[in-house]
Amino acid sequence: MIVDDLVRTPAAVAEAERWTAHNYHPLPVVISSAEGAWVTDIDGKRYLDCLAGYSALNFGHRHPALIAAAHAQLDRLTLTSRAFVHDQFATFCRELASLCGKDLVLPMNTGAEAVETAVKVARKWGYKVKGVPHDKATIIVAEGNFHGRTTTIVSFSTDPDARADFGPYTPGFKVVPYGDLAALAEAVDETTVAVLLEPIQGEQGVIVPPEGYLPGVRALCSANDVLLVADEIQSGLGRTGQTFACDHEGVVPDMYVLGKALGGGIVPVSAVAADQDVLGVLRPGEHGSTFGGNPLACAVATEVVGLLKTGDFQRRSAELGARLHAELGALVGHGLLAVRGRGLWAGIDIDPALMTGREACERLAARGVLAKDTHGSTIRLAPPLVVEPAELDWAVEQLAAIL
Ligand SMILES: Cc1ncc(COP(=O)(O)O)c(C=O)c1O
């Protein structure tokens, strides 16, 4: 570890390592408080958070309106289960449905659960509406996808770390290259019920597909009676400078899959949103979750939707994103090989001759910037959308300095 002025951190990191499964490889930073775009560790060192909980913290840490909504709800009602209706439920579902321009919403908790929900709904829609023979439904996904960690979802992952030792795998998925419309067209047949895609592949390194790809996928799905399911768990809710990444090309999917920022960085909230002809296929007992759509989650997420409806965060992401991409672009050829992304979201490829992504993140942390590597020498930058322009400039200066 490069940081050497930290006193309590090494012991706290060792303690965490001692008591947990090693399914993560965190940077040696032990955070104890946060506000807006900044976090503070147990040694009192401050860091600009340029990961923002993988976009779960789009509105920053402890946004006052979200914290107020959570506090108010904590003092009234936290959990009923869906065995009963509670007074926050309809409001949340109505507001989110209206943000998405869809008839219905089905709330869950984690992103992976929402993806599982979309898979089940698409399959049932295939059997009941499209008329696919029973147990024959296929869903087409993209190489390099990341949709979560359940056994079904890792069944169609192309990342060996995510998939290798977790078989036997769930059948019914076809994998095609991301961004390749011809390959997708080739893969569609009468058993295809859905195409499930991230409009920008986050985990893969913020991969933006070629222009025209998403509208092409939309047209292909419409022509073949196939549902387009957009996993906007990481790309949605303001991150790219629009409410949804699909909006950049005017694409409206049949189903939105949402999570992360929907919970305001306070509670896990995920959901799928679709029209009646799609989500209407579910009947009582076929799907659910004890905590899905709980009062606390609904109260916070309703406030999240309210923040998004102002358009302020989308505008901020677009404006600051232009600034970020211009500054990062100037580093290409000076330690960076490439920069990709939209809005306040960037995947940057560091010249592997200089250092790995992990080393770069450690050096950035030593300078007070938190970011996370993915796949070799690629780093994702996704600061909270409340970050100030000067803070963003400062973060890029730190990057330039380590390069
Ligand atoms: C696009 C996408 N889908 C699904 C997930 C899974 O979400 P969760 O970790 O909440 O299960 C993620 C998480 O990174 C994601 O980026």
Number of β-strand runs = 15
Poorly predicted spans: none
**Distance between termini?**
18 Å
Roughly how much helix do the residues carry, as a percent range? 25-40%
CATH architecture of the largest domain: 3-Layer(aba) Sandwich
Q: Regarding CATH, which class of the largest domain?
A: Alpha Beta
What does the main sheet amount to? 7 strands, mixed
Per DSSP, the total helix count is 14
- Beta-strand level of the residues, as a percent range? 15-25%
Compressed to H and E, one letter per element, the order equals HEEEHHHEHEHHEHEHEEEHHHEEHEEEH
Q: What is the CATH homology-level superfamily of the largest domain? A: Type I PLP-dependent aspartate aminotransferase-like (Major domain)
* Small molecules held by this entry: pyridoxal-5'-phosphate
Read across the widest sheet, the strand sequence of neighbours is: 4-10-9-8-7-5-6
The gyration radius over C-alpha positions equals 21 Å
Shape label: globular
Number of domains: 2
CATH fold title of the largest domain: Aspartate Aminotransferase, domain 2
Overall pLDDT: 97
Question: Helix- and strand-based class?
Answer: alpha/beta
